[in-house]
Design a protein that fits this description.
- It is built from 18 helices and no strands.
- It is mostly helical and 283 residues long.
Length: 283
């Protein structure tokens, strides 16, 4: 690992903006090393879990997404496919905030590995949610058409998604409201009849409201509403809570606290996702 990457390998609570700018400036030089970081994280994920202040895999993921590096696609898929809670433990809440943009940014239009994430019941449910949402990013960016995504979502409603109550069904309903609620409405209603959806997250009445908005405005504003490729690592990571400027805790203790905080955030994720979706529909 180069000296530059060694400087940002661990998080000491201070955001390494200067180092990240240097890596971005010389991205071709650093891409192979960033790919190696992801390989190492997959092969040694237990070490990543033990080293609470290890941060190289997060920088690598975001930077490679910013660079639209297709070679990182399989490596990121491998990492987020780790057993159940492991992806949440090694990536924290980024699973619900940015993974959909990252997957869309590095897939190069190849959605088959993303579909496998969606349809695999052994994959972390928030990874699966991000995979479903990544199709809306691809729609917003013009990579995939509305008809292509509606057909895939139909296949999920028709049996490719296990018909068991989960956050994954909530996400499918949310994103169906973005891509074409009128076209998918009968499938959506059946999901509510079969008690697959948490109505506290999104009610059928909210779906009806989304239809009115969608039929009037379609999806021309998706990109402006955040359904776009990942663009700026510094802007995104620089505001994270783990980069507190005035932090008196020892490094490891501080990162342990952040890690524990992220574990408890699962309890609030449903509400956060709902609030986020409501905000998007209002804009």
């Amino acid at each position: 690992m180069s000296e530059m990457l060694k400087k940002i390998e661990y998080n000491n609570g201070k955001f390494p903006e200067a180092q990240l700018k240097e890596i971005i400036k010389h991205k071709e030089e650093f891409i192979p090393e960033l790919l190696d970081v992801l390989r190492n994280a997959k092969e040694n994920y237990n070490d990543v879990l033990k080293n609470y202040n290890y941060f190289a895999h997060i920088y690598a993921t975001f930077l490679l997404a910013q660079f639209k590096e297709k070679k990182s696609f399989k490596l990121i898929i491998d990492l987020v496919s780790l057993q159940k809670e492991i992806p949440d433990d090694i990536f924290g809440e980024y699973l619900t905030q940015d993974l959909h943009k990252i997957l869309a940014s590095v897939c190069g239009g190849d959605v088959e590995p993303i579909k496998k994430l969606v349809e695999d019941n052994d994959v972390n449910e928030y990874v699966r949610c991000a995979a479903i949402k990544s199709f809306i990013v691809l729609l917003g960016e013009g990579v995939k058409s509305q008809s292509e995504i509606i057909e895939y979502y139909k296949s999920l409603f028709e049996g490719k998604l296990e018909r068991e109550f989960s956050q994954v069904w909530n996400e499918l309903i949310y994103d169906s409201c973005e891509v074409g609620p009128s076209e998918l409405y009968e499938y959506i209603k059946k999901a509510y009849v079969d008690n697959l959806v948490d109505e506290e997250c999104i009610s059928l009445e909210e779906v009806d409201g989304a239809i009115k908005i969608h039929d009037k405005e379609k999806f021309s504003k998706l990109k402006n509403e955040g359904y776009a490729f990942f663009k700026d690592t510094i802007e995104e990571l620089g505001c994270w809570e783990c980069f507190a400027r005035n932090n008196d805790l020892p490094k490891s203790q501080y990162m342990v606290g952040i890690n524990k905080m992220n574990k408890h955030k699962n309890k609030n994720k449903k509400k956060k996702v709902k609030d986020s979706k409501k905000g998007q529909r209002k804009r």
